[in-house]
Amino acid sequence: MHFNQPCKVLILNSHNYKLYKEHITFSYYGGIFEKSPYEFEAAKDGLWHIAIERGGYFNPKNIMASFTQSFD
């Protein structure tokens, strides 16, 4: 994943993504990343969601991100 400035990246399974969208306590992998590119592997098989948080509600960042998927 490439991004144009530091941002918080959340990697969520389907259950936790649903909780995230409903503003309920959830679990995730990831965190704040300062350097691009960032490479990661899914912890388990299944469907995963990636959310990039843009900062605060009143002062959102204009973050641009791109992804490449590879299968080994």
Structure notes:
By secondary structure, the chain is mostly beta strands. It has one domain (2-66). It contains one helix and five strands. It has one helix at 14-21, and strands at residues 2-3, 7-13, 29-33, 48-53, 65-66. It has a three-stranded antiparallel β-sheet with strand order 3-2-4. The chain has a two-stranded antiparallel ribbon with strand order 1-5. The longest helix has 8 residues, at 14-21. It starts with a strand and ends in a 6-residue tail after the last strand.
Please give a handful of descriptors for the protein shown.
single chain, 72 residues, mainly beta, two-stranded antiparallel ribbon, 1 helix
Largest sheet: 3 strands, antiparallel
- Beta-strand level of the residues, as a percent range? 25-35%
Number of domains: 1
Overall strand count: 5
Q: What is the strand arrangement across the widest sheet?
A: 3-2-4
Q: From the alpha-carbon coordinates, what is the Rg to the nearest angstrom?
A: 13 Å
**What class, by secondary structure content?**
mainly beta
Q: Give helix % range.
A: 10-25%
Low-confidence stretches: none
Give the rounded overall mean pLDDT. Answer: 86
Distance linking N and C termini: 17 Å
Report the principal-axis shape: flat
User: What is the helix/strand order?
Assistant: EEHEEE
- Tally of separate helices: 1
